[in-house]
């Protein structure tokens, strides 16, 4: 017997948990597993995209900070040292 239960994950999204101890058929189980793997892949891709966006934003902030420090050093009359 296949037992579908709806549960909540940490993000408040619902998902089905499937008790596969007695699936109706192999095709049904295969479709469920493929769907689950696709969902996991989609979420992983989404998180990867978010991480890359944040890294790009951090790089831009660092560039701005370096520019501002250089401007402040120029205003203070301090020469930058390039080694």
UniProtKB/TrEMBL annotation:
<keyword id="KW-0539">Nucleus</keyword>
<comment type="similarity">
    <text>Belongs to the HSBP1 family.</text>
</comment>
<comment type="subunit">
    <text>Homohexamer. Associates with heptad repeats of HSF1 trimers and probably also HSF1 monomers, and with HSP70. Association with HSF1 trimers and HSP70 coincides with attenuation of heat shock response and the conversion of HSF1 trimer to monomer.</text>
</comment>
<dbReference type="InterPro" id="IPR009643">
    <property type="entry name" value="HS1-bd"/>
</dbReference>
<feature type="region of interest" description="Disordered">
    <location>
        <begin position="1"/>
        <end position="23"/>
    </location>
</feature>
<feature type="compositionally biased region" description="Polar residues">
    <location>
        <begin position="11"/>
        <end position="23"/>
    </location>
</feature>
<protein>
    <recommendedName>
        <fullName>Heat shock factor-binding protein 1</fullName>
    </recommendedName>
</protein>
<dbReference type="GO" id="GO:0005829">
    <property type="term" value="C:cytosol"/>
</dbReference>
<comment type="function">
    <text>Negative regulator of the heat shock response. Negatively affects HSF1 DNA-binding activity. May have a role in the suppression of the activation of the stress response during the aging process.</text>
</comment>
<feature type="coiled-coil region">
    <location>
        <begin position="48"/>
        <end position="75"/>
    </location>
</feature>
<dbReference type="GO" id="GO:0003714">
    <property type="term" value="F:transcription corepressor activity"/>
</dbReference>
<dbReference type="GO" id="GO:0005634">
    <property type="term" value="C:nucleus"/>
</dbReference>
<keyword id="KW-0175">Coiled coil</keyword>
<dbReference type="Pfam" id="PF06825">
    <property type="entry name" value="HSBP1"/>
</dbReference>
<dbReference type="GO" id="GO:0070370">
    <property type="term" value="P:cellular heat acclimation"/>
</dbReference>
